[in-house]
Write a structure and sequence with these properties.
The protein is mainly α and about 150 residues long. The chain is about 60% helix and about 0% strand. The longest helix has 21 residues. The two termini are about 40 Å apart.
Length: about 150
């Protein structure tokens, strides 16, 4: 993703929300909006929703003030904090989540692999075999043929 584009987006957010950003957000906006670089799986990460953004920001705030907190207890704490937040803060995080999903779409575009041939041919079942099943080409059967 283009850094200039991200900087422009962040400047627009700061102009729109003004002091609310400086009072509420602890993590720099470019870190908050982009998902963590450490991936748990090879699959694409999902875009962050408003509560994930709120929780990440609140966790950084609590961690800087009082050290580490147990994750299960922190989630309950974050849910209670969200209930007591003002409408402006809620709108801020909901807007940030919409922006994060757009940035996610720019970063992780869908790239289908068209007209790509398999490097091998699927074995055709022998009709004379007693184990022949006409519905053999469902996904489970194909996976069992491919990954023996």
């Amino acid at each position: 993703m283009d850094e200039q584009f991200l900087d422009t987006v962040i400047r627009n957010i700061e102009e729109c929300f003004g002091n609310l950003i400086t009072e509420t957000i602890v993590i720099p906006l470019n870190e908050l909006l982009l998902p963590a670089k450490k991936l748990r799986a090879k699959a694409l990460p999902r875009p962050q929703n408003w509560f994930v953004l709120y929780r990440r920001n609140l966790h950084a705030k609590v961690k800087s003030e009082s050290g580490n907190i147990e994750f299960g207890n922190f989630l309950k704490f974050a849910a209670r904090q969200w209930q007591s937040e003002t409408t402006g803060v809620r709108k801020l995080f909901m807007t940030l989540s919409e922006i994060a999903s757009v940035l996610h779409q720019f970063k992780h575009r869908y790239k289908p692999r068209r007209n790509q041939q398999l490097p091998f041919k699927l074995p055709l079942p022998d009709p004379s075999n007693n184990h022949y099943d006409r519905n053999c080409y469902d996904i489970k059967c194909v996976n069992s043929l491919l990954f023996k």
